[in-house]
């Protein structure tokens, strides 16, 4: 069954630098690449490369038709990716020699998705399908309500983190994926620990320290595979896309997390975002 993903589509403009610049510092880049990115696009590609069907719901601007074509080439359905006037989403990424990054985002077309069309799009969904979304588009609550009206399980990646955006979504979610910093920010904003959230399953990614699953059975910790990172950009998106695909395919949560960790661990050994997300047989 397919996964329905309301998500961003960005042009990733990656500047490799000797170190992340300090305020006011002018720094010469050592290399530059343009690639397909955006948390939504990354997750759609990850779902497809994990072996599941995925429908991407989003928008690109007049400068973004190449991104729509590339998504399609990676096996993602783009029937519901609108083409709008104005710029597409853009991400300017500074990547240092240690694989750490700093990112500036322009929402562009991602913030102008037609929320009134979501009900019609999701009318094509069937029982057993999954849905997923992130915080890089408009229409989050509209999408959550439309998904739950059809009885589909719903996963949310709470990034980029915004407490005001996440809080009203919690009651609609079946799965919430956050990193360690986002989990701390959400607890500070809501006063609720991950175990107290009204969400059946909460998965917290811990980078090199692994992942933590908080569910009905309590907490379970997962150790991360040991690798030497080259670029951490997109690793969390790869993890989430693989996790949702694995759950859609019928794996239990523990096995799904283990598979997602393997995918993220391979991802950090590569330079790039959506274009270099690993295929399942590479894991």
From TrEMBL:
**One example GO MF annotation:** ribokinase activity
Q: Pathway listed for it?
A: Carbohydrate metabolism; D-ribose degradation; D-ribose 5-phosphate from beta-D-ribopyranose: step 2/2
> From which residue to which does any coiled coil extend?
none
The answer to keyword Nucleotide-binding applying to this record is yes
List ligand-binding residues for ATP: 179, 205-210, 236-237
- Ranges for the Carbohydrate kinase PfkB domain? 6-278
Where this protein primarily resides, as one coarse class?
cytoplasm
* Listed GO biological process terms: D-ribose catabolic process
Per its UniProt record, what InterPro entries does this chain match?
PfkB_dom, Ribo/fructo_kinase, Ribokinase, Ribokinase-like
Q: Which residues form the active site?
A: 237 (proton acceptor)
Oligomeric and partner information: Homodimer.
What family does the entry list? Answer: Belongs to the carbohydrate kinase PfkB family. Ribokinase subfamily.
Q: What is this protein called?
A: Ribokinase
Q: Which organism is it from?
A: Pseudooceanicola antarcticus
Question: Gene for this protein?
Answer: rbsK
């Amino acid at each position: 069954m397919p996964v329905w993903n309301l998500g961003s589509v960005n042009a990733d403009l990656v500047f490799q630098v000797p170190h992340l610049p300090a305020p006011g510092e002018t720094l010469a880049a050592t290399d530059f690449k343009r690639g397909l990115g955006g948390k939504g696009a990354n997750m759609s590609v990850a779902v497809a490369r994990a072996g599941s069907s995925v429908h991407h719901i989003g928008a690109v601007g007049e400068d973004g038709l190449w991104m729509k074509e590339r998504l399609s080439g990676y096996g993602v359905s783009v029937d519901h990716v609108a083409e709008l006037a104005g710029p597409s989403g853009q991400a300017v990424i500074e990547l240092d020699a240690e694989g750490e990054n700093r990112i500036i985002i322009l929402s562009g077309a991602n913030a102008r998705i037609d929320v009134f069309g979501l009900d019609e799009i999701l009318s094509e969904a069937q029982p057993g399908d999954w849905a997923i979304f992130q915080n890089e588009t408009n229409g989050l609550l509209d999408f959550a309500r439309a998904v739950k009206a059809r009885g589909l399980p719903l996963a949310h990646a709470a990034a980029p983190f915004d407490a005001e955006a996440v809080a009203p979504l919690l009651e609609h979610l079946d799965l919430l994926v956050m990193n360690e910093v986002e989990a701390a920010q959400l607890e500070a904003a809501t006063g609720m620990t991950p175990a107290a959230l009204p969400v059946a399953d909460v998965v917290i990614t811990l980078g090199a320290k692994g992942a933590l699953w908080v569910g009905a059975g309590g907490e379970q910790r997962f150790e991360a595979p040991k690798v030497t990172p080259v670029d951490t950009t997109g690793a969390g998106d790869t993890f989430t896309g693989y996790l949702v695909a694995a759950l859609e395919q019928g794996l239990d949560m523990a096995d799904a997390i283990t598979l997602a960790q393997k995918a993220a661990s391979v991802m950090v050994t590569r330079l790039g975002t959506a274009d270099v997300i690993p295929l399942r047989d590479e894991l």
